[in-house]
Amino acid sequence: MQIVFETFLEQLSESVDEADFREAMAGTASELDLLTFAYLSLPLQPSGKPKLISNYPSPWTARYLQNRYQKLDPVILRARCGGCPFRWGSGFSGVEISQAQQRLFDEAAEFGICSGLTILIVDRRGRIAAMTFAADEPNPAFLRIAERYEQALQLMATCFHISARRKLSGNRTVDGVLLTPREYECLQWAARGKSASDIGCILGIKPRTAAFHLDNAKKKLGVRTKNQAVALLASSRSSIL
To answer: I need a surface site. Which of 29, 70, 99, 164 has the fewest CB within 10 A?
Structure first.
């Protein structure tokens, strides 16, 4: 388990977009015989849009977001109440659900999402998210795996959330200029005193690729040196804070 977790952390550190995060969690979950997952980060404002990263069938995730099912989903409503990770099936034992909520469960089942383990995440900034590992039926094997790795899955969910929040926040603007995820990440490491060679090792890319992204960032920012770009980054951070 330690090797699986260390590999997962390395993949998170190298992830720059939603596809990377999806691959990191899907690969790690499969190592634990958990084949499907869904991470849903809820917006701070009621009018905001949630962020969903999942390897569920794409027609289901598209329908879920389009219909704003997070406002109806009993699993998400239960997660909002806090507490320990919980398991669910075609409904909640001892809990009455509405007809609309039952239809949602039935729709999900059509896509092979019939039971799961859901973990609530609340970070220090007040953001709420839920990580669900799902199965196509409530079989004993899934329940044994969920119980055996529950604490590890909680830690993985938290690490995933923090890393995704930091890297996918959309705030990649420096001095009013929007950088690509990789340009911004390379510039962040340069601000920590890392060379292009160091950045390449950290991100798992070639040094010349790291240098390429840094050069692009300098051009976009209208500066000639890396130090000038780093100074603009620091200034932008200060203005945000």
So the answer is: 99
> What span, in angstroms and rounded, lies between the C-alpha atoms of 73 and 70?
5
* Look-up of token digits 């899955």: 153
Q: What is the dihedral of CA 60, 105, 88, 32, to 10 degrees?
A: -20
Tell me the per-residue pLDDT of 25-66, one tens digit each, with 9 for 90 and over.
Answer: 999 999 999 989 999 999 877 777 899 999 999 999 999 999
Mean pLDDT value across residues 172-176: 82
pLDDT at residue 100, rounded to an integer: 93
pLDDT of 151 higher than 60: yes
218 Cβ partners below 8 Å, 6+ apart? 224, 225, 226, 228, 229
Count other C-beta atoms under 10 Å from residue 62's C-beta. Answer: 12
Phi-psi region of 88 (alpha: psi -120 to 50; beta: other; left: phi over 0): beta
Torsion of CA 200, 165, 58, 82, to 10 degrees: 140
Instruction: Of 64, 70, 75, give the one whose Cα is nearest residue 111.
Output: 64
Share of the chain above pLDDT 70, in %: 94
Q: How far is CA 1 from the centre of its chain?
A: 21
Which residues lie closer than 8 Å to 14 by C-beta, 6 or more apart? 20, 203, 204
Instruction: State how far the alpha carbon of 162 is from the alpha carbons of 146, 169, 196, in Å.
Output: 22, 10, 26
Tell me what pLDDT residue 240 has: 40
